[in-house]
Design goal:
The complex is a heterodimer. By secondary structure, chain A is α/β, with parallel strands linked by helices. Chain A has 13 helices and 15 strands. Chain A has a seven-stranded mixed sheet with strand order 3-2-4-5-7-6-13, with helices on both faces. In chain A, strands 10-12-11-14-15 form a five-stranded mixed sheet, sandwiched between helices. By secondary structure, chain B is an alpha/beta fold. Chain B has a single domain, classed as Rossmann fold, CATH 3.40.50. Chain B contains ten helices and nine strands. The chains are: A alpha/beta, B alpha/beta. At the A-B interface, helix 3, helix 5 and strand 9 of A face strand 1, strand 2, helix 3 and helix 5 of B.
């Protein structure tokens, strides 16, 4: 029955996808708009021999997944922007100690307490080395519920493959909307983790989960090891969708997540009106699909990034284009979601202005 | 004519400690506390089943000294890390945290209270020496009134900084914990008692949350020679931080009584329309 299509709410689909990926442990703290994830987990996990703990704070939640991940199981937490800010410290420890976990951020508008509407204002926080120190982490950004389901499985696989915490970012729309989804078969073949702290048998040396190196040379060696890993990730893991770009249109929109859904409709509308345009949609925000954008810059004469923020991903797009083409920006903030018509009008204005 | 000398070991390093030289200052009681915990783990024969969590503070390098699987936690978060380990490993494992007073009673107060309140089946070893040792002798939440530290140069003023926190008594207000006790590492008799408390805590760990506070010295931070520091502990700390067992299965305080409300009785709310 696993190939059956089901109509599900986004948050619940994300939670169920994690369970199918072999995650049996959830530690989290309530925050809107992602409460359906812990609620779903609190209902499901005890029935399948799993662990659900409502932590006293996001600070504790991230440290609980550190402990559990370090003990060798697939584990996750979820939160929303202000709560994710509180996880920054723990995230850095997860990176440094190389503990594989998955953290879902259902982003809401900020700064501060902000609002609860859909936002992409955490792009910088997620992609620029979330937490203190020299670090990076894979950031996945689904734009449909089916993709959210698929990327949850990938998130756990990448976390284990690279022994690194992995982030999945959505927003209130991804979390709240309903769409049909198909779940993969439940994973049974989870990777061995000989480094985990499970109790030291006489047959091996003790395992230590740690990120402390008091000698600068030792810490530099750890950072070098991490960055060698990041180089492999940057080479192998960038993902993006190219939508209506095969005819190399002179205009290329760039958007991810919820905004990419609206941008796709805008592209179709503009094409119907005779404007030659396509969309490049990053699926991995880090590693950013820079080479795909650079390649598009061979033919596209103008790029326009549209975001649910005042312009964050646009900086990565500009860096990828390296000044060869103009990269313009338009976006809404604070939880305001623009209409297709609004994007079409803004794109027409930005074409005119060039 | 050669004389035959028989060599016989009368005192050895505990098996559960590594051969690594510790970084602790001379006369510091961390060495004693480490040894007591290691001896208990050895005597209970649970080395292969035990996972330790170290704090941020002087014991930050404890994973170098215990020959166990260990995790290093962020400052104050050891009880949360231990929760994660405890909940996912088989129930026959033993999980302990080893935390100082700044780590546990200041930045980590939320984590210790909630781990205790959930009844996490872990043992917490709480080193209370009334000072931040690792960072250079600043005031701790357990620093006694009037005591001068590098951040209370005129002496701790309770009207500004509050009084020292008695963590064992504070945790003893919760329902869930199974064992709470305070010992002191100031003389051989107290040290022998402290070891018994640690052993009891580990023996009871699989029944619920267990907590042992160890009054300790910091000769460097206190500016006292080691032996004088121990006398200072006895004369100044012990009258406020009373040693003994605060809670054990055969000695449960009133605060440990569980409350199970009769939820079928709504107090007439439904009749009044309040619950509809």
């Amino acid at each position: 029955m696993s190939a059956q299509r089901m109509l599900m709410k986004g948050s619940e689909a994300i939670a169920e996808a994690a369970i199918r990926a072999g995650c049996r442990c959830f530690f989290g703290y309530p925050i809107t708009p992602q409460n359906e994830i812990p609620e779903y987990m609190s209902k499901r996990l005890p029935k399948i021999g799993g662990v659900f703990v409502q932590a006293e704070s996001e600070v504790s939640a991230v440290n609980m997944i550190y402990g559990a991940g370090g003990a060798g199981v697939r584990v996750m937490t979820s939160s929303s922007s202000p709560g994710v800010s509180l996880m920054a410290e723990g995230f850095s420890y997860l990176v440094g100690a190389e503990v594989p976990v998955v953290i879902v951020n259902i982003v809401r508008g900020g700064p501060g307490l902000g609002g609860i509407g859909p936002s992409q204002g955490d792009y910088f926080m997620m992609t620029r080395g979330f937490g203190h120190g020299d670090q990076r982490a894979v950031v996945l950004a689904p734009s449909t519920l089916q993709e959210a389901v698929d990327l949850m499985g990938l998130a756990f696989d990448l976390a284990d493959k690279y022994r690194s915490p992995t982030l999945l970012v959505g927003d209130g729309l991804i979390g709240q909307m309903m769409e049909p989804v198909t779940f993969p078969e439940a994973r049974l073949d989870l990777p061995e983790k000989p480094w985990a702290t499970t109790g030291k048998p006489k047959t091996r040396e003790r395992n230590v989960i740690n990120s402390l190196d008091l000698a600068p040379e030792d810490l530099e060696a750890r950072v070098e090891r991490l960055f060698a890993k990041y180089a492999r990730i940057e080479a192998d893991e960038p993902r993006c969708e190219r939508f209506m770009l095969d005819d190399n249109p002179p205009l290329c929109l760039c958007a991810y997540g919820t905004m990419a859904r609206i941008a796709k409709s805008a592209v179709q509308r503009l094409r119907a009106e005779g404007v030659s345009v396509g969309l490049l949609r990053p699926i991995t925000l880090w590693p950013f699909p820079a080479s795909a954008i650079a390649q598009q810059a061979e033919s596209a004469r103008q790029f326009i990034c549209v975001e649910l923020s005042r312009g964050q991903m646009v900086e990565d797009a500009r860096r990828a284009v390296e000044g060869r083409r103009p990269v313009d920006f338009w976006g809404r903030a604070g939880g305001v979601v623009p209409s297709v018509e609004e994007i079409v009008a803004e794109v027409r204005r930005l074409i005119r202005d060039r | 004519m050669s004389e035959q000398i028989e060599e016989r070991a009368v005192f050895e390093r505990t098996r559960v400690l590594t051969a690594k030289h510790t970084h602790y200052c001379p006369g510091c009681t961390h060495g004693i506390a480490h040894r007591l915990v290691a001896e208990v783990i050895d005597e209970l024969d649970i080395q292969e089943k035990t996972i330790g969590v170290c704090p941020v503070g002087c014991a930050v390098l404890a994973y170098e000294y215990f020959d166990l699987d260990m995790q290093e936690a962020a400052h104050g978060r050891a009880p949360a890390v231990a929760t994660g380990i405890r909940r996912v490993l088989p129930p026959d494992r033993y999980v302990f945290t080893y935390q100082g007073d700044g780590d546990l009673a200041s930045i980590g107060m939320a984590e210790i209270v909630h781990a205790a309140n959930r009844g996490e089946k872990i043992t917490v070893i709480f080193i209370n020496n009334g000072i931040y040792g690792m960072t250079g002798g600043q005031m701790a939440p357990t620093t006694l009134p009037g005591v001068k530290t590098t951040t209370s140069p005129y002496g701790r003023a309770p009207e500004e900084c509050g009084h020292p926190i008695r963590v064992s008594e504070l945790l003893n207000t919760l329902v869930a914990p199974r064992f709470i006790a305070r010992g002191a590492l100031s003389n051989p008799r107290e040290i022998a008692r402290a070891k018994k408390l640690i052993r009891q805590a580990f023996e009871l760990q699989h029944t619920g949350f267990t907590f042992v506070e160890l009054l300790s010295t910091c000769p460097t931070g206190w500016g006292l020679p080691p032996e004088k520091a121990m006398r200072w502990l006895e004369h100044n700390m012990m009258p406020f931080f009373r040693t003994g067992v605060l809670r054990a299965p055969d000695a449960m305080p009133e605060s440990a009584t569980p409350y199970a409300p009769d939820l079928s009785n709504d107090g007439g709310a439904a009749k009044n329309g309040a619950a509809t």
